[in-house]
Q: What sequence folds into this?
């Protein structure tokens, strides 16, 4: 992008606002270096990063970058073998800590399933370097002093320094309290001059006091003397201070070496944190401006909804809607001065630059922007006295420069195209320029006062008129952009409202050409049609709201009906379950009675007793009235005969037809269960041989939820267990189990032996085995059913 375009569109002013949201000097530097990109993938990534930054602000309130410092100079000096001081080491530790906190925050969000892949990728590149931070903080305190614990030698030296200082203080305190010296001192205090402990002595006692003079007061009345008694002690203290500094430098040298070892990782961390601060600054800008990251189009479609210029106060800015790229590629804006034409130009151009820099734009969510190969603007007065260029010449110079650079991916903005010269020639030149730009495939927005350009936009297939609205009643612009309607000059109406005589206005109208009159009539007609269309739109919107209200009411009633239907179904289901339970209890009672008979007097069972038991079983099966279905008509249209395999639709089970009854009813056997089913409840599958007859003609199939896949027999006698096994196996067969487990425990083995002996003779048992490892071992018998 050309710098003169960035300047005319006030791009740098927006960057200053973004920079104010950066938390670190690194981030501010990145914002300062930010320029729009013309690469679609790069722009897409920038906007995605900014959107994730805005999501992170919404989730966490802010991005914690406190403690990040610009340590690049320190890293360079360490790489060159220089010695880092205490403050620089602390800044490195602080930056390491800040990077770790940011990384931890994103990992915490990952656990909360927040989708921030780009920010997570950026923070995951940050090396933790905990060991370096710990080593620095173990040697340097918060005040930037090397700790005594940094090395044993440093601790020893400082202990000796403390002892020597104590001796000096004690010696000088004795002198201050001595009556011999009190009259010689200017005041009884101990102070320092050039790192030596001294006492302020009056000038006239310099010979009597003795010692080394280090300084005197401005008046010369006071001398600062180091007494002879502490000269050796001060010398010793100075030696220890030099040793201390040497040891401190040695500790800092070790820390510097460790920093040098991690210099590459630290450089990468700084780069990642700087990039993160740039993203955060753009996100904070978007949050403050109530801005959005628009969608990117691949077909040069530009659609801005409720776009607001970011440099105009929110209380004063008037949102605009503009769309171009599909139906038309050129917008010609007309209207009065100070009406907002130039603001519209700058808004569209500035938004293009912002989007391609990854900065969110103050607009609605549905806004769409393309990625332009270049944004070119000729805005403002380019007159130059030094170059002896007129206003027209200055504009033309810019236009020539623009025409040399544009292509099919450019956005071109012309303010007052063709102005500054003869109106007829200027209009003709403007039309030629617009036709050339459109032919190159660029998008172009131009402002003008020329009527000829209004006609051009009205007749050209890829151009459209637009205007900024003017309120004739208040004689003030509304700043609203009206696309599809050319602007009127309103000169006659304004003159009339201001009091110009009517006869003068009529004379002026007579001087207009017939083409100009037709143009004004066309504009008046379009304006009237637009107002009518706006009224129709309002009516349509009201009808739409009423339709939505009716729709919601119908949906609410439908939901209530569905809820009521569900309640009725649930009630019917509960009643059906109770009927089935009753039938099951009756069937179990019959089976129990039959077993008792067979066990007690197998030879005495009479035929009438079996008939009576069969009758009770048949009565235990409830008559099911199956709903008639229309689905699967093809399967039900086939003729069903005895022996056919069919699907019972109500329970989705497969059975065999054993008898054809009257009235399209069939008796179907499903396992041990025989059911009387209407033709509509069956779907033919395949033919099969008639099922063999069984002694018990009817039974009830249980739900698996009523029968467990194992039976616990522990603690029971063999006879008692056998009765329970016999009943349980019947239930398991009805429930459809192919394998069950009998838990008898290990114990003495008597119960296991009795159970397995019974299983060998049972008609429903295909086979059995002891449980494997994980199934209970020898304490469980696994039974395979027929």
A:
């Amino acid at each position: 992008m050309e710098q003169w375009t960035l300047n005319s569109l006030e791009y740098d002013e927006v960057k200053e606002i973004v920079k104010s949201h950066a938390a670190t000097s690194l981030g501010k530097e990145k914002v300062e270096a930010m320029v729009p990109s013309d690469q679609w993938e790069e722009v897409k990534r920038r906007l995605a990063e900014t959107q994730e930054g805005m999501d992170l602000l919404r989730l966490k309130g802010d991005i914690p970058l406190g403690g990040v410092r610009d340590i690049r100079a320190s890293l360079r000096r360490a790489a060159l073998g220089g010695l880092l001081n205490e403050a620089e080491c602390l800044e490195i530790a602080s930056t390491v800590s800040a990077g770790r906190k940011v990384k931890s925050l994103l990992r915490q969000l990952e656990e909360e399933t927040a989708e921030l892949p780009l920010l997570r990728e950026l923070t995951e590149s940050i090396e933790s370097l905990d060991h370096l931070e710990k080593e620095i903080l173990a040697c340097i305190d918060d005040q930037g002093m090397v700790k005594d614990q940094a090395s044993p030698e440093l601790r020893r030296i400082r202990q000796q320094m403390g002892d020597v200082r104590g001796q000096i203080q004690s010696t000088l305190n004795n002198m201050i309290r001595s009556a011999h010296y009190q009259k010689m001192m200017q005041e009884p205090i101990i102070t320092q001059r050039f790192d030596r402990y001294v006492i302020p002595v009056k000038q006239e006692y310099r010979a009597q006091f003795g010692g080394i003079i280090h300084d005197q007061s401005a008046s010369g009345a006071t001398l600062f003397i180091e007494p002879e008694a502490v000269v050796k002690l001060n010398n010793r203290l100075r030696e220890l201070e030099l040793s201390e500094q040497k040891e401190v430098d040695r500790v800092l040298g070790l820390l510097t070496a460790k920093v040098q070892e991690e210099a590459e990782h630290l450089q990468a961390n700084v780069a990642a944190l700087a990039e993160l601060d740039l993203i955060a600054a753009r996100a904070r800008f978007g949050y403050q401006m109530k801005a959005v990251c628009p969608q990117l189009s691949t077909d040069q479609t530009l659609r801005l909804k409720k776009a607001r210029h970011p440099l105009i106060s929110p209380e004063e800015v008037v949102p605009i809607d503009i769309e171009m790229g599909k139906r038309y590629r050129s917008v010609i804006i007309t209207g009065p001065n100070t009406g907002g034409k130039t603001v519209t130009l700058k808004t569209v151009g500035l938004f293009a630059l912002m989007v391609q820099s990854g900065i969110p734009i103050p607009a609605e969510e549905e806004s769409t922007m393309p990625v332009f190969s270049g944004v070119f603007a000729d805005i403002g007065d380019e007159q130059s006295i030094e170059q002896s260029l007129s206003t027209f010449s200055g504009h033309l110079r810019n236009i020539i420069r623009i025409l040399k650079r544009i292509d099919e991916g450019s956005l071109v903005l012309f303010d007052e195209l063709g102005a500054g010269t003869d109106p007829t020639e200027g209009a003709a030149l403007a039309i030629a320029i617009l036709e050339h730009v459109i032919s190159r495939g660029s998008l172009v927005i131009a402002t003008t006062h020329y009527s000829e350009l209004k006609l051009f936009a009205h007749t050209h297939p890829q151009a459209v008129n637009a205007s900024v609205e003017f309120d004739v009643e208040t004689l003030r612009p509304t700043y609203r952009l009206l696309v599809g309607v050319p602007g009127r000059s309103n000169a006659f109406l304004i003159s009339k409202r201001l009091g110009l005589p009517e006869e003068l206005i009529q004379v002026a109208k007579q001087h207009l050409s017939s083409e100009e009159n037709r143009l004004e009539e066309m504009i008046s007609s379009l304006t009237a049609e637009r107002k009518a269309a706006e009224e129709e739109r309002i009516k349509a919107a009201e009808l739409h709201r009423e339709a939505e209200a009716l729709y919601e009411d119908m949906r609410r009633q439908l939901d209530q009906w569905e809820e009521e239907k569900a309640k009725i179904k649930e009630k019917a289901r509960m009643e059906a379950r109770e009927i089935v339970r009753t039938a099951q209890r009756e069937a179990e009672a019959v089976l129990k009675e039959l077993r008792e008979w067979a066990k007690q007097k197998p030879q005495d069972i009479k035929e009438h007793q079996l008939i009576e038991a069969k009758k009770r079983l048949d009565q235990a099966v409830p008559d099911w009235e199956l709903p008639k279905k229309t689905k699967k008509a093809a399967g039900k249209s086939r003729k069903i005969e005895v022996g056919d395999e069919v699907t019972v639709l109500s329970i989705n089970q497969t059975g065999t037809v054993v008898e054809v009854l009257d009235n399209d009813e069939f008796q179907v056997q499903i396992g041990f269960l025989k059911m009387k089913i209407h033709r509509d409840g069956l779907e033919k599958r395949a033919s099969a041989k008639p099922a063999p007859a069984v002694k018990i003609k009817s039974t009830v199939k249980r739900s698996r939820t009523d029968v467990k896949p194992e039976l616990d027999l522990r603690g029971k006698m063999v006879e008692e267990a056998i009765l329970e096994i016999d009943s349980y196996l019947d239930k398991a067969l009805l429930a459809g189990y192919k394998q069950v487990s009998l838990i008898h425990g290990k114990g003495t083995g008597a119960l296991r032996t009795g159970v397995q002996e019974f299983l060998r003779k049972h008609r429903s048992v295909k086979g059995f085995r002891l449980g494997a490892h994980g199934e209970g071992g020898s304490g469980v018998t696994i039974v395979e059913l027929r």
Notes: The chain has a mean pLDDT of 82. DSSP finds 24 helices and 23 strands in the chain.
